[in-house]
């Protein structure tokens, strides 16, 4: 290629994705080795061989480097509820989606491996950030429930339903983390959650068995 030729948009986007992934990978490695609080943005930039400003352009906050699937995590429950089929309730849709995530050992559901999970557990900053993500996920779920049941978002019903459904997901996420930190491998954790998760969702059945069922 001529050195003066501007790369095609597809190539530019590919390079951006590669740079972003490189920065993320190096940041994760350093966070695991040194701890989140003890790793600086400058050290991450050096490891990725980019400018410090490049790091902050891709990841405005340091927490974004460690938890780079935040948007997916926050939107997941709301997206499942919004996409539920005819005759399906939010409880049923979320139950099926969670069990599918367990079967796939999805990192967004909590199957992140012992080193990564320990990195979060050992960091007060990341632990607080994770709690905030759970809160934001519940807020997004409230909006989705309100929108798909033609209910005002400040109504007590979608807010309560989101608290119950979000609470179960929070408990199950924490259960995966607990088993991971105890040294259990992902396949074994998936087996445990495949047994335990239905029991957790069953506790919500008396309250939410018919709530939000689509015609």
From TrEMBL:
<dbReference type="InterPro" id="IPR050109">
    <property type="entry name" value="HTH-type_TetR-like_transc_reg"/>
</dbReference>
<feature type="DNA-binding region" description="H-T-H motif">
    <location>
        <begin position="40"/>
        <end position="59"/>
    </location>
</feature>
<feature type="domain" description="HTH tetR-type">
    <location>
        <begin position="17"/>
        <end position="77"/>
    </location>
</feature>
<dbReference type="InterPro" id="IPR009057">
    <property type="entry name" value="Homeodomain-like_sf"/>
</dbReference>
<keyword id="KW-0238">DNA-binding</keyword>
<dbReference type="InterPro" id="IPR001647">
    <property type="entry name" value="HTH_TetR"/>
</dbReference>
<dbReference type="InterPro" id="IPR041347">
    <property type="entry name" value="MftR_C"/>
</dbReference>
<dbReference type="Pfam" id="PF00440">
    <property type="entry name" value="TetR_N"/>
</dbReference>
<dbReference type="Pfam" id="PF17754">
    <property type="entry name" value="TetR_C_14"/>
</dbReference>
<keyword id="KW-0804">Transcription</keyword>
<dbReference type="GO" id="GO:0000976">
    <property type="term" value="F:transcription cis-regulatory region binding"/>
</dbReference>
<keyword id="KW-0805">Transcription regulation</keyword>
<protein>
    <submittedName>
        <fullName>TetR-family transcriptional regulator</fullName>
    </submittedName>
</protein>
<dbReference type="GO" id="GO:0003700">
    <property type="term" value="F:DNA-binding transcription factor activity"/>
</dbReference>
């Amino acid at each position: 290629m001529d050195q003066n030729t501007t790369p095609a948009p597809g190539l530019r986007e590919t390079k951006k994705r590669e740079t972003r992934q490189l920065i993320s990978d190096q940041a994760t490695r350093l966070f695991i080795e040194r701890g989140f609080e003890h790793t600086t943005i400058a050290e991450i930039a050096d490891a990725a061989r980019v400018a410090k400003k490049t790091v902050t352009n891709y990841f405005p906050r340091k927490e974004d480097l460690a938890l780079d699937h935040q948007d997916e995590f926050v939107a997941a429950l709301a997206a499942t509820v919004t996409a539920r089929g005819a005759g399906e309730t939010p409880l049923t849709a979320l139950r099926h989606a969670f069990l599918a995530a367990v079967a796939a050992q999805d990192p967004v559901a909590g199957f992140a491996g012992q080193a990564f999970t320990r990195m979060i557990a050992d960091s007060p900053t990341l632990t607080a950030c994770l709690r905030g993500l759970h809160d934001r996920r519940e807020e997004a779920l409230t909006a989705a429930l309100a929108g798909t049941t033609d209910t005002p978002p400040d109504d007590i019903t979608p807010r309560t339903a989101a608290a119950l459904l979000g609470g179960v997901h929070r408990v199950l996420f924490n259960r995966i983390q607990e088993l991971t930190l105890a040294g259990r491998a992902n396949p074994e954790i998936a087996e445990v959650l495949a047994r335990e998760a239905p029991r957790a969702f069953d506790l919500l059945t008396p309250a939410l068995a018919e709530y939000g069922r689509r015609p």
